[in-house]
Amino acid sequence: MRRPLGTSLFAAVLLAAVLPATPASAETRTSGYIVLLADGVAASSVSSVSADHGTTVDHVYSSALRGYSGRMTATAAARLARDPRVALVQPDGVATATAQTTPTGVDRVDAELSATARIDGADQRVAVDVAVIDTGVDLDHPDLNVHTAGAKNCSSGRSADDGNGHGTHVAGTIGALDNGDGVVGVAPGARIWPVRVLNNQGSGSFSDIICGIDYVTAHADEIEVANMSLGGSGSDSACGTNRDAMHEAICRSVAAGVTYVVAAGNSAADSATFVPAAYDEVITVSALADFNGQPGGGAAATCRADVDDTFADFSNHGADVDLIAPGVCVLSTWKGGGYNTISGTSMASPHVAGGAALYRATHPTATPGTVKSALQAAATGTWNTGTDPDATHEPLLDVASF
Question: What are phi and psi of 129, to 5 degrees?
């Protein structure tokens, strides 16, 4: 879903008339033109053709075309167009390279204002490591800084390469490169560790997920942040009670220094009945419907029906939710080197994971609890909190100060 080229070359038009002369107009003002020679006229004739009409020569074309480009007045261009050696005289045009898109979610959380993110198209990379515990990540995506040597497959398939697309989408929101192409993430260039715990259909067992958490914990001296845009039925418990193996794994991983960011869930229900969203040790994220990257509402819906600047109609809610972030119609990277727009709290969570990555990049000794507090302290109330299904109005992620 890359942006198309901007203004391409103008359509071919023969110049047959000259506008009435005005001061500093057709008689004196020069512009760029492209000249195509007639059939049978060799490219070696460019010099004589241009000299006969007093035009300059910039490029000579002899393979794809026979002709040249140069600057001339409109009068000279009209005269040249009548030369039997010339098939076409065409005004030059402007083309732009494929542009990088700043997704509306990245805009809404003010990542472009972060001194650490430094979003300017120069491909400066945030020095931080983030594990994406998901369907894997496209290991060869040109818009991601994938740490392929750190990839782990706890699911089916032969590798941690993404056969679904979901994990690659999450990875792009976290850290798509600021390289002037495709999209840009909240923490551009963050090193992405693909930890595959879900299959190509986007499902997996708790045991597979624990395998992924175990792997991340083994690399806690390298990985600062882990994103888990996944979940299943369950409830909270206290660390050390050994009532829930996945919770115990996260408790110990957090104790090892890894900040976990997780999706609240998409059932429009209380997140207290979903894990890992219910765990106190993680940062649980609900979804905001935002269609233009700006506060205030009023923007038209795009990929799905919802209301701008409101609590997403599918998002889980409740006291376990710590932050809200854009999660509707989010553009990001996709498997096969592509891009896609999808919705879910799975899309909201990686915005916060990117924010956590920015904070850890400049606060390398911060504990997960400190990271969580910093994110909440920097967050804002600039969304329509009256649409929240409960009385706990979680603040909106804002990383401008990071």
Answer: -115, 130
Q: In the structure, what pLDDT confidence band is assigned to residue 22 with cuts at 50, 70 and 90?
A: very low
pLDDT value, residue 4 = 31
CB of 324 closer than 8 Å to CB of 395: yes
Q: 259: closest CA among 364, 188, 154?
A: 364
Residue 309: DSSP 8-state? T
Residues 96 and 342 sit within 8 Å (Cβ to Cβ): no
Specify whether the CB–CB gap between 292 and 308 falls below 8 A. yes
Cis check: omega of the bond before 4, within 30 degrees of 0: no
CA 121 to chain centre: 13
**How big is the chain, counted in residues?**
402
How far apart CA 177 and CA 124 sit, in angstroms, is 8
CA-based nearest residue to 281, from 217, 365, 348:
217
The torsion of the CA quartet 291, 294, 298, 299, rounded to 10 degrees, works out to -30
The helix/strand/coil state of 255 is helix
Q: What mean pLDDT is predicted for residues 274-299?
A: 96
Among 88-102, 108-122, 146-160, which is the least confidently predicted range? 88-102
Amino acid at 157: G
The average pLDDT across 238-250 equals: 92
Rg of the chain taking only CA atoms, in angstroms: 28
Amino acid at 298: G
End-to-end Cα, the chain, rounded Å: 29
Catalytic site positions: 134, 166, 346
How does the average pLDDT of the chain come out, rounded? 90
Confidence label for 94 from pLDDT (cuts 50, 70 and 90): low
Whole-structure pTM value: 0.79
